[in-house]
Amino acid sequence: MTITINGRAVEAPDDPRVSLLDLLRDRLGLPGTKKGCNQGACGACTVLVDGERIVSCLALAVQFEGRSVTTIEGLAGANGLHPLQRAFVEHDGFQCGYCTPGQIVSAVGMAGEAARGVPSAVTADVAASGITLTREEIAERMSGNLCRCGSYNGIVEAVAETFATRERDEVAA
């Protein structure tokens, strides 16, 4: 039984009680995914599974046989940091940095949701095929990721800049 993690096939644990978070951190040495509350309330452990964001502390690793998991370590590409990682630095989207990996991974998943037209509680046109990520949309969609330092303004700025730039680049291509 294997799980693809950051593009690499990994054997699922023998113990079916091991959370995906504990597999990543304790058994695979991927410390970027943080154990915050261990109750699914803070978002520090957010990862992408087949492009969808989940909190890994509430998920059993064996549930993801044959699926693809992306952690913060898997976002960077051959050219270095993911554009959102660079934007977090430029916009002071972190202070202590503990929540930052979960914030970044969640924002990448959130942008995919908006592009597919998945509405949020503040989406004006729920029938739209794609949703514009206004600051209000970003704040609402990122509300499951908590920052104890209160860096929300920088986080929203980084997300807004990154995904607005992507839209311009895609239109120009």
From TrEMBL:
Pfam family membership, one: Fer2
Residues annotated as domain 2Fe-2S ferredoxin-type: 1-75
Top-level lineage group: Bacteria
InterPro entries cross-referenced by the UniProt entry: 2Fe-2S-bd (IPR002888), 2Fe-2S-bd_dom_sf (IPR036884), 2Fe-2S_ferredoxin-like_sf (IPR036010), 2Fe-2S_ferredoxin-type (IPR001041), 2Fe2S_fd_BS (IPR006058), Aldehyde_Oxdr_Iron-Sulfur (IPR052914), Beta-grasp_dom_sf (IPR012675)
Keywords: 2Fe-2S, Iron, Iron-sulfur, Metal-binding, Oxidoreductase
GO MF annotation list: 2 iron, 2 sulfur cluster binding; metal ion binding; oxidoreductase activity, acting on the aldehyde or oxo group of donors
Family annotation (PANTHER family): OXIDOREDUCTASE WITH IRON-SULFUR SUBUNIT, OXIDOREDUCTASE, IRON-SULPHUR BINDING SUBUNIT-RELATED-RELATED
Name of the molecule in the record: Xanthine dehydrogenase YagT iron-sulfur-binding subunit
UniProt source species: Aureimonas jatrophae
Lineage, broadest ranks: Bacteria, Pseudomonadati, Pseudomonadota, Alphaproteobacteria, Hyphomicrobiales
